[in-house]
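re: the backbone from monday

yeah here it is again, tokenized this time
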């Protein structure tokens, strides 16, 4: 019997992408969301984890950068693949190395534009609108040691209308995120050949 690939989802907010991943892989015989990691004890993603019977761990910056703690946590749940879905802390070099080509991030704009430190949530969409862009979109990329600088895996464009507010654009982008993140995650895990 083939061992299921186990995903850890790192999220800091409401966890809508985490929930889509959990639902997408719920009845999958090869892939399962095993663990939710968050840096906020008030994050909505905790409710998502509890509602779906998924283990969760609340960490802070010092735990995230603690090699033995994080390695033990991820080994405890036998994590094969990490998805950052609205996780606001920078991943430490040891985790980037340990999960090389097995850790991805989703960003709500077309990188390299509108990325980097502080570019999350409505800040991103406001930046897009303020700069007069006619399109934005979703980027999925591998995680490296800098915010939003890893190799791009997939992008999908979304039209920006003149009447769009940051909130309206956010909703349009989120619809695309919810569709493409599970698909791309499944494809990447299917292509992994380290077993």
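seq for it, each position gets an aa:
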């Amino acid at each position: 019997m083939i061992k299921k690939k186990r995903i850890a989802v790192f999220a800091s907010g409401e966890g809508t992408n985490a929930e889509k991943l959990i639902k997408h892989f719920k009845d999958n015989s090869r892939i399962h969301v095993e663990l939710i990691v968050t840096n906020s004890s008030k994050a909505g993603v905790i409710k998502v984890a509890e509602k779906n019977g998924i283990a969760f761990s609340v960490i802070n910056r010092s735990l995230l950068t603690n090699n033995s703690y994080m390695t033990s946590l991820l080994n405890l749940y036998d994590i094969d693949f990490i998805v950052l879905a609205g996780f606001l802390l920078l991943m430490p070099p040891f985790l980037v190395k340990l999960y090389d080509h097995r850790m991805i991030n989703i960003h709500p704009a077309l990188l390299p534009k509108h990325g980097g430190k502080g570019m999350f949530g409505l800040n991103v969409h406001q930046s897009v609108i303020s700069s007069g862009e006619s399109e934005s979109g979703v980027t999925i990329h591998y995680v490296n040691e800098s915010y939003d600088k890893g190799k791009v895996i997939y992008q999908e464009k979304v039209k920006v209308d003149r009447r769009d507010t940051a909130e309206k654009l956010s909703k349009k982008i989120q619809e695309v995120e919810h569709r493409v993140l599970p698909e791309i995650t499944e494809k990447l895990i299917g292509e992994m050949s380290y077993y």
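The beta strands are 5-10, 31-38, 55-58, 81-84, 103-107, 135-142, 152-159. Residues 112 and 149 are 7 Å apart (CA to CA).
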